[in-house]
Amino acid sequence: MYYNEEFWNKYSDENESRYNEEFAKFVKDLATSLRCTSVLEIGCGTGIDLRLFPDTFQIHGIDLNDHALEIAKEKLGVVDFKKGSITELPFENASVDFVFTHGLMNYLDDETLEKGIAEMFRVSGKYIMNCEKFEEAERQIDENQKFRNMQNRWMNYNVRFVSNVDMHEDIEPDKPRFTLLKKL
Predict the structure, then answer these.
(1) Residue closest to 70 by CA, chosen among 13, 28, 31, 6
(2) Which of 16, 129, 169, 183 is the most exposed place for a label (fewest CB within 10 A)?
(3) Residue 19 — φ and ψ, nearest 5°?
(4) How far does CA 3 lie from the centroid of its chain?
C-alpha cells in the first residue's frame, strides 16, 4: 500500500474546512437508532465525523497519519484514537457495534481495499457503513482516488444490505453512495 505522508498532512490541515455537521449528526443518529454503544471510524483523520457522539459511546478512531491524530486528540479527548491501518485493525473479533468509513475506500488500491473489507467484517459486531464516491464500474477519479462500488465488494460476506443509495445532498453535498450492512 502506497502512503503519501505529505499529501495526508496537507489533507489533515485542511480537514476542518470539510467538517459537515449534518453528516456527523447523521452518523451519530444512525448508530444510536441501531442501538449501538461502540463505534469505530477507519480513516478518521482529525475526527470530524466523531464529534457529535456522546461520551456514553465507546468511540474509536483509526488513522495512519500522526499529524491528523494529534489534531484529533487535542479536539476530542474522550475518543480512543489509535495509529493503525485498515488492513490490521487493533480490535478483537466482533468487538465494535458500528464500524464505518467516509471517503476512505476511494483512496485505497484494490489489494488494500480487499484486506480492509475483511478486517472491517472481522471487527464489526453488528453494522458496517461505507460512504464513498460511487460508480457502478469502478474507475480512477484522479491519481489519488478511485470511484468504488462497495455493494459489489461486500457480496461474498455474510451480511444483509440495509441500504445502498446515494446520500441526500442536504446531508452530504457530494452525494456519495451510502452502504449500510448488518452483519449476520
Answers:
(1) 13
(2) 169
(3) -60, 125
(4) 17
From the list 31, 50, 41, the residue with the least C-alpha distance to 101 is: 41
CB 34 within 8 A of CB 25: no
Q: What per-residue confidence (pLDDT) applies to 162?
A: 97
CA atoms within 13 A on the CB side of 33: 6
Map out the domains of the chain with their CATH numbers. 5-45+56-183 (3.40.50.150)
Cell of 150: 462497495
Q: What is the pTM of this model?
A: 0.90
The answer on pLDDT for 158 being more than 90 is yes
* Structural contact between residues 156 and 184, judged by C-beta atoms closer than 8 angstroms: no
